[in-house]
Design a protein that fits this description.
Layout (H helix, E strand, L loop, with lengths): L1 H14 L3 H13 L3 E6 L46 H8 L21 E3 L18 H13 L5 H5 L1 E6 L15 H25 L3 E5 L8 H4 L10 H18 L5 E4 L1 H11 L7 E2 L19 E2 L16 H20 L1
Helix pairs in contact: 1-2, 3-10, 4-6, 6-8, 9-10
Length: 342
Amino acid sequence: MRKTLLVVCFLLILTAGSRHVECRRHRERRRKDYTLFVFGDSFVDAGNLPKSSGRSRVSRGWYYPYGSSDSSHGNQATGRLSDGLVQSDFLAQMLGMDESPPVFSTLRTRAEVENGINFAVPFSGVMNGRQEQQLSLREQISQFGEFVDHGSVDDKQLENSVALLSVSNGHDYSHVSDTTSDRQLDAYIDDVTDGIVEGVKRLQEIGVSKVLVNSMPPLGCSPWRARQSVGYAQCDGAGNTLATTHNRLLRRKLDGLEDVHVLDLYNAFNSLARSMSGSTPCCDTSDHNAYCGQLDGNGRAQYTVCASPGDSFYWDNENPTQAGWEAVMDRLQANIQDFLAA
């Protein structure tokens, strides 16, 4: 996507005298074409959770080594669960923006919205229980509805709007145990996919014109499942079967809905991870229960960071690196552009 922008700017240089002015005008013109609204989990969150006074599994995105590859933010942690930018940032760049639109936690309900809003939060899903503080997909979409009702998002913005919906990092399925029967699991997957489809329809009712929906990646190849084998050498077959069942049911339920496109994260993750670092995360821990960024009582790091994050697909136990996300979105870009142009 960055390469695409550079090519466009170069072509503009050939037809005009000022690189800075022409590239800026090109970006401004495209920025007026779309508004982007983002919903879901850590794959697309851009820092909605507030920074706490101390690091924890929940707040770790605000502390080193998170953000350490993000030159656009001074290589500082921004709350994103990656070493840099995430999926919503690269989609925003595809739409002519610099990065993900502002997170809702920094906006007033009646705030003026220019490029869109990011409502996503880590550890979110369809089936969030009352004990979980993170907003569920339904609650995020309800917040979006409040912004629309209060006039912060006008009809013209909705006419040219794109929603990115991600219930994909497996949080819903972290509740599934080895004692769950096949019948119970099938019913649970049915409920999760029903919730995603309900969210898509609600967004369309509110007035969003185009909806992009993430499929589930190969959960069994994510580091938190694959590390059960020696050296992340083998994917968990049950996790991948769960993901393929989820994706098959989701596509069937979304089939026939106009202006909805499913992003194939499963195959993108599967092929790109194999060509990069496999299931081994760049930020790794020796203790399965520890997390990237964790310190002990003496301030010593309980993790290690690889020498070249740009060569790794996974950053931590669940989330891709900035380089991983850029590769995924480059892989999906042509299909996204065709969908938006239709």
